[in-house]
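To illustrate the input format used throughout this study, we show a single complete record. The first block contains the structure-token representation of the backbone; no residue identities are included at this stage. The design step must infer an amino acid for every position from geometry alone.
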């Protein structure tokens, strides 16, 4: 909604309930309390007007027609696992929950695609594809909880994006309900298709500000042949570990999983549970290779890391691989045991990964903030986690100052504000710094064309 636009606080919610085909409307306090925020833990002003649980595209159509008629802001919502404040629902907003749209409408082995609704849990699609001998490669850290709709809204990435790409690379087409209730389909089911503008790419990553995604045609891949191979390399510090991804790329090695865990985070994991890692290094680089030559590629990485003063373990044992890779999956949980967290997300050029890690250490000292960092090291997508006392009623000023310092440093190094979490509410203040005035104006022109009333997830991104 445009800043300052009045909301109809007497909008007839009962009329909306009557118009829904299969969905439900709730105005229960506990429901609204749970749905007014996400895992960024920011607090919106005021309270939502109501929550709609849609069960079909028809429900979403009726909801958007009603919202447009009464100029009620709409906040689309999946599982609420977002980390950028993209699902904050403030005063007078309608929360449009898509978590009950859970159908996998089609899974085609011959065409290697799945047609899904937005409430499908990411890991559930991965399991369904696996049972048919296929793979859905997008693997965010929240895969067991996050919905595909949320992944599409933020263009989520995850552990395997270095080799297989982020969500956009797996999207063939979409079904989208626009702000006025019209339904458009974008893209195609074919392996190639370039008709018209790339509307699919436009809606992926738009964070619910241009329309509501109610269906997606997703590309599946053949499962890699042969056993996986895992490498764990302990380095003296994160700066030393950051040299390895460049050397891997120069050697032509392409792991499906390449994760860096810094000193602060590794100490947090060690304090939580015993670890059996090679050597006694302070930072850890974890890699997984798939495909016919996984074992050979892992062995070559092990040798390379050894030349960089790392202690290395290479294994093709599935149980040991899972144990090693679980260190990365438990990283955030270990940090959360130490206090309240603000998890950030930005990307720098791969050649500047070590520089950015060193800058984070300086920023932490400058602002007296404990920061633990993990990174999708292959594409230099860093996730610094800023810690502060649980008793703080809101994010302290020194934490915001440290975050500001990090984002501006990432941009100065040629990076971008987000690789997978989105802009949401959290990063709005820095977006113009990255885009520039003219590109920001183009964004606003697109937003105004598709959402002239300004009701789609207002206050997010722009």
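Output of the design step:
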């Amino acid at each position: 909604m445009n800043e300052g636009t009045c909301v109809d606080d007497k909008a007839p919610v009962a009329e909306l309930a009557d118009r829904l085909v299969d969905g439900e409307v709730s105005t229960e306090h506990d429901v609204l309390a749970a749905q007014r925020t996400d895992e960024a833990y920011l607090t919106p002003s005021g309270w939502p007007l109501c929550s709609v649980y849609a069960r079909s595209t028809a429900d979403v159509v009726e909801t958007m027609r009603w919202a447009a008629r009464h100029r009620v802001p709409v906040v689309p919502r999946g599982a609420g696992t977002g980390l950028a404040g993209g699902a904050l629902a403030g005063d007078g907003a309608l929360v449009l929950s898509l978590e009950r749209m859970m159908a996998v409408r089609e899974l085609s082995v011959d065409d290697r695609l799945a047609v899904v609704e937005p409430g499908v849990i990411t890991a559930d699609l991965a399991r369904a594809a696996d049972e048919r001998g296929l793979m859905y490669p997008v693997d965010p850290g929240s895969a067991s909880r996050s919905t595909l709709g949320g992944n599409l809204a933020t263009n989520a990435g995850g552990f395997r994006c270095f080799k297989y790409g982020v969500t956009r690379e797996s999207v063939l087409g979409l079904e989208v309900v626009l702000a006025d209730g019209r339904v458009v389909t974008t893209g195609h089911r074919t392996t190639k298709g370039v008709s018209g503008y790339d509307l699919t790419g436009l809606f992926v990553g738009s964070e619910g500000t241009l329309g509501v995604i109610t269906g997606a045609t997703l590309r599946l891949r053949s499962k890699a042949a042969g056993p996986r191979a895992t490498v764990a390399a302990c380095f003296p510090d994160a700066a030393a570990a950051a040299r390895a991804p460049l050397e891997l790329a120069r050697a032509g090695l392409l792991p499906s999983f390449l994760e860096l865990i810094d000193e602060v985070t590794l100490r947090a994991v060690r304090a939580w549970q015993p670890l059996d890692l090679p050597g006694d290094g302070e930072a850890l680089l974890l890699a997984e290779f798939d495909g016919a030559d996984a074992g050979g590629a892992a062995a070559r990485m092990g040798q390379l890391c050894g030349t960089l003063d790392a202690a290395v373990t290479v294994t093709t044992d599935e149980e040991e691989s899972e144990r090693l890779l679980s260190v990365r999956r438990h990283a955030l949980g270990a940090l959360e045991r130490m206090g309240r967290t603000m998890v950030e997300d930005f990307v720098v050029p791969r050649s500047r990964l070590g520089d950015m890690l060193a800058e984070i250490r300086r920023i932490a000292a400058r602002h007296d903030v404990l920061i633990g960092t993990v990174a999708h090291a292959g594409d230099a997508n860093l996730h610094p986690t800023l810690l502060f006392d649980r008793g703080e009623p809101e994010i302290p000023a020194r934490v915001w100052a440290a975050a500001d310092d990090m984002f501006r440093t990432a941009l100065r190094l040629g990076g971008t504000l987000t690789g997978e979490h989105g802009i949401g509410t959290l990063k709005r203040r820095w977006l113009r710094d990255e885009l520039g005035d003219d590109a920001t104006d183009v964004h606003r022109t697109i937003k105004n064309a598709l959402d002239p009333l300004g009701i789609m997830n207002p206050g997010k991104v722009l």
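Structural context for interpreting the output: The longest strand covers residues 212-219. The CA atoms of residues 100 and 296 lie 45 Å apart.
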